[in-house]
Amino acid sequence: MRPGVLARVAQPADLDDLVHLCLEARKEAGTGAQLCTDDADRLRRQLGALVGVDGGMVLVGILDDQPAGLLLGRLVGPSLFQDGTSLALEGIYVLGTARRRGLGHALLAHAVSVAEQNGATEVYAAPLPGARGMQRFLARLGFAPAAAFRVAGTAALQRRLQQEAAPVAVRRPAPRGLEDLIARRRQARAARQPAEPEATTLGLRIDRSSVLRRPTATPGRGW
After folding, report:
1. DSSP per residue, 156-186
2. Degrees (nearest 5) of the Cα angle 131, 24, 137?
3. Could you list the pLDDT tens digit for every one of the 223 residues in the chain?
4. Model pTM greater than 0.90?
5. How far apart are CA 192 and CA 183, in angstroms?
């Protein structure tokens, strides 16, 4: 480790300096709430909670006796989908004026030492989009792509889920062919046409065809 460079576990007295470093990282990254809140009091509570949580890791980097960097992480596992323990780096940042002095290496070396002591076999890091310097730093140290994260606002996601769950309009069937249309019209006309009544006289059924049919003249007799 270079002279004047130190990485150590953060103490309660370091919270104000850590809040300042987080806000500087937020301004530089330009990703807003994806990195951290801009409320100093809320950020102080969140950092304090990370210090107190089981497996939480908050390191402060000191350069020439001044806080100039931080590392936030958690020891994760074993879990339902993971047999071993791993170190998840949630954030690592060094002030622009303190870079290229070995402070980032010192912070990461301290974190890896703690991870090994706790049986962690892998270290995961999720650099923010646009943080090219951090991505190059991690790539030089052997970090390779493993997965991609996507983010969605809770309210926007809730609205989208409700839209996806809305009932789908039932599409009407396509019109049938011309032959089917003609057949249906014929059936409709037949249903509307009344049946022809049968003629009856004195209770006797008369065959209408026999009434209308003229009888044939009998030879020798007049009509």
Report:
1. HHHHHHHHHHSPPPPPPPPP--HHHHHHHHH
2. 30
3. 677 899 999 998 999 999 999 888 888 776 655 567 778 898 888 888 888 888 999 999 999 999 999 999 999 988 776 788 999 998 888 998 999 899 999 999 999 999 999 999 899 987 766 677 788 888 899 988 877 667 777 888 888 888 887 765 555 555 556 677 677 778 877 777 665 554 433 343 434 444 444 444 444 443 3
4. no
5. 15
Nearest to 90 by CA among 117, 70, 110, 118: 70
Query: Cα dihedral sign for 42, 45, 51, 54?
Result: negative
Residue 45 CA to residue 77 CA, distance in Å, equals 24
What sections of 34-177 are H helices per DSSP?
A: 40-52, 103-117, 132-140, 154-165
Per the document, the length of the chain is 223
Q: What is the DSSP letter of 32?
A: G
The sign of the torsion formed by the CA atoms of 74, 141, 136, 122 equals: negative
**Amino acid identity of 23?**
L
What residue has token string 């003609």?
Answer: 182
Tokens of 31: 């990703």
| DSSP secondary structure letter of residue 39 | -
3-state secondary structure of 154: helix
Q: Are 85 and 78 in contact (CB under 8 A)?
A: yes
